[in-house]
DNA sequence: CCAGGGTTTCAACGCCTGTTGAATCCCGAG
DNA sequence: CTCGGGATTCAACAGGCGTTGAAACCCTGG
């Protein structure tokens, strides 16, 4: 429902760029990079597709801009680590589930996961974000404070369960996981993360 | 390099249908449903795209035919359960890693995962396959033999880690996971699965 | 009140997609 | 030897895609 067929600039601050980003976040998160089309995103934002290209140059550029993570890992990770190693797994899982619930449909994590599987560039983005922003930090902290062996392997193991949580709960929507309350899930997944971080890795 | 431009039937048994299926498995597994094109699959099989439609009716039909699982869960699941509950987690992870290594590029699990994220029909296929063929069976067995509570939730938790293994190791290719030897991974992931199946779910 | 430039749209391009209908070919049954 | 029918290809369609260049618009600075 754009204002009737006239071209050119409308008065006011216009916030169109933000509207495009919002629409892109939603489309990329629910459909992935390939299936989300520039035309659909522009449509959602009530705007001509050419305007999207004017602002972001290319679909890839729009993706990078839209998938920027709304939380700063450099601030969040230390806050989760602060109370100490005990219960870190539960805290981490609880935080993850809360963030997922709050972000809802426009969730860059979902967008990255959905895109990574068939778009190598997105896989690289996700690997780098996970690695540099989160896993390396966690690995370093765990290696220092409890002297755990193979810290980076431990971090990758955590990532394997976290990605699995997102896949099973948000994308595959396995019934018992989608229905369970947060406390149950924290109780189930928390100890797994905790063991990957600080427990023995041999069986 | 198809036999020079002539139409019509060539002599012999022709095995063309099998070649198309093989090409489809490989393309769907590495690129997912959307990114894999009928034309590319036909090209790999050295065949005209129209022949693909002739055999399978539609791209979706080709996908369903190609993603049929090469193992029969009704035979595999009992075999894994047979030695008893002890060490079931390790056995399951070891089996999964072995199957992934053996199937290589043409792996229906990868194809389903890669497609499920942006193709609801594929997500349904994967949910049903996981659920009916595997998780329900495992849940039933675990519920009966050790009397564990909430068997289906336990099965879904296993699925969350298994899907995470595939994502992290095969798709995101997290470095330490892709490099680690199988024994290490079995030692790390096995106890997680075992706890989901038979352990306490509260922390 | 004029000029510049950011904002927005329009129309089109070239490409690739899944799918179709008809045509050719050749094997095997009668 | 004929002929039906499966195998295979060709050529085309209609639609969707990302992207482009130019045009219209209107606010702001001088």
TrEMBL record, chains A, B:
Alphabetical list of Pfam families matching this protein: TetR_C_16, TetR_N
UniProt KW DNA-binding keyword: yes
Limits of the HTH tetR-type domain: 14-74
Portion annotated as DNA-binding: 37-56
UniProtKB keywords: DNA-binding
Alphabetized PANTHER family for the sequence: HTH-TYPE TRANSCRIPTIONAL REGULATOR RUTR, TRANSCRIPTIONAL REGULATORY PROTEIN
Name of the protein in question: TetR family transcriptional regulator
Organism of this sequence: Actinomycetospora flava
